Amino acid sequence: MRQAKIFYNTIFCGLLTETDGGDYTFGYDHEYTEQYPNQFITFNLPVRKESYTDKRLFPFFEGLIPEGWLLDIATKSWKINRNDRMGLLLACCQNCIGAVSVEPVNINDE
User: Fold this and answer.
1) Domains of the chain: total
2) Which residue in 20, 63, 100, 109 has its CB near the most CB atoms, within 10 A?
């Protein structure tokens, strides 16, 4: 299982999880849903208390992953398979252009 904390600007807004079975969940943080009910990270994932689930990485997060020559550099530098979308998201998207950033969660430290 791999997880990432998702931030909107500098505010923790939710947790993205890739299960061992390859499914994905994204859930907004409870405090975030209370304080920022209209501040969604994307139109496809409006703020709600229930988690979202899917068999594939959500298109919004997929769109944060670099493409083209930058993807080539990332896959070679970090030795990540270009099909490992969660791995690329965790490695490349901590300092994205825009309001959303991704911070890897080290499960072993928790």
Assistant:
1) 1
2) 100
